[in-house]
């Protein structure tokens, strides 16, 4: 089964007036995983799609949705997958790729059939992002050993973290999709601090591995007009190109960042110092 919903883009002047409820309705994706279901959110931010796939009792085939007006989901799109659960497999036009937790798979434009399955008693949770594509690049698995790893931050500032670049142009050829995974070290809670914006790209954050009973406060908005959304594990949030995207948890956690837009330059950021935020 495939379920989809649609989200419009928003002007920053409108977003600054939203109530807590309205902010959550427009930007938070609270329920990504449902048994034996593919759940998708189609956004008007660079026509990005955020989704979750949970094959419990049967394999799940990725079907096209009404918004795409295409015979197959990937006729004009590329797809990124990161498994955040137990070992699972993804079959792409007959070729099987096994994914352990925190491993990724890039699937290029033009592939016809994508099927998600569990392996034995393990329960995979497949987090997916998709963006429009103009060229067909090869499908490629990115294991933990393939990731480009960067150590960032400092325990002094509670933001020591390990960044794993997975689906980025230095590892995988893509049209515009970029994805990676960041792990906060124990005792550290701040991600993407100092904060930044990049008007050339939108972004989506997916939080996971958060201890039960804890929460993450995700910060968004223009640097001088910030807002926050409290989030739980296995929830995602849409980050417009005009918005910062940063967060602090009541314990450490991991998160996946995905982006699409004007360029593939990861370092293309307009930084904001912590004391410059409002």
Automatic annotation (TrEMBL):
Cofactor, how bound (note): Binds 1 zinc ion per subunit.
Known cofactor(s): Zn(2+)
Pathway: Glycan metabolism; pectin degradation; 2-dehydro-3-deoxy-D-gluconate from pectin: step 4/5
Biological processes, Gene Ontology terms: D-galacturonate catabolic process; D-glucuronate catabolic process; pectin catabolic process
Cited InterPro entries: KduI, KduI/IolB_isomerase, KduI_N, RmlC-like_jellyroll, RmlC_Cupin_sf
The protein's Enzyme Commission number: 5.3.1.17
Pfam families reported in the protein's UniProt record: KduI (PF04962)
Free-text function comment from the UniProt entry: Catalyzes the isomerization of 5-dehydro-4-deoxy-D-glucuronate to 3-deoxy-D-glycero-2,5-hexodiulosonate.
Family, per entry: Belongs to the KduI family.
Protein name per the record: 4-deoxy-L-threo-5-hexosulose-uronate ketol-isomerase
């Amino acid at each position: 089964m495939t379920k989809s919903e649609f989200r419009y883009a928003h002007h920053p002047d409108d977003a600054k007036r939203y109530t807590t409820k309205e902010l959550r309705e427009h930007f938070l994706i609270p329920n990504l995983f449902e048994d034996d279901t593919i759940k998708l959110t189609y956004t008007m931010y660079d026509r990005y799609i955020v989704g979750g796939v949970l094959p419990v009792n049967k394999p799940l085939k990725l079907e096209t949705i009404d918004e795409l007006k295409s015979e197959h989901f990937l006729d004009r799109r590329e797809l990124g997958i990161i498994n955040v659960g137990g070992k699972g497999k993804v079959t792409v036009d007959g070729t099987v790729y096994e994914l352990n937790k925190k491993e990724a798979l890039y699937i290029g434009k033009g592939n016809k059939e994508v099927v998600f399955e569990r392996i034995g008693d393990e329960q995979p949770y497949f987090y997916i992002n998709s963006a429009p594509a103009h060229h067909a690049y090869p499908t490629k698995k990115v294991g933990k050993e393939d990731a480009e790893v960067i150590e960032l931050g400092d325990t002094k500032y509670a933001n020591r973290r390990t960044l794993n670049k997975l689906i980025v142009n230095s590892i995988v050829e893509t049209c515009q999709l970029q994805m990676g995974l960041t792990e906060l070290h124990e005792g550290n809670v701040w991600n993407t601090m100092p904060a930044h914006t990049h008007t050339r790209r939108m972004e989506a954050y997916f939080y996971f591995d958060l201890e039960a009973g804890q929460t993450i406060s995700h910060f968004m908005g223009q640097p001088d007009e910030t807002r926050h959304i409290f989030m739980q594990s296995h929830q995602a949030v849409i980050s417009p190109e005009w918005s910062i995207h940063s967060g602090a948890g009541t314990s450490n956690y991991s998160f996946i960042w995905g982006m699409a837009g004007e360029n593939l330059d990861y370092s293309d950021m307009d930084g904001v110092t912590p004391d410059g935020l409002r």
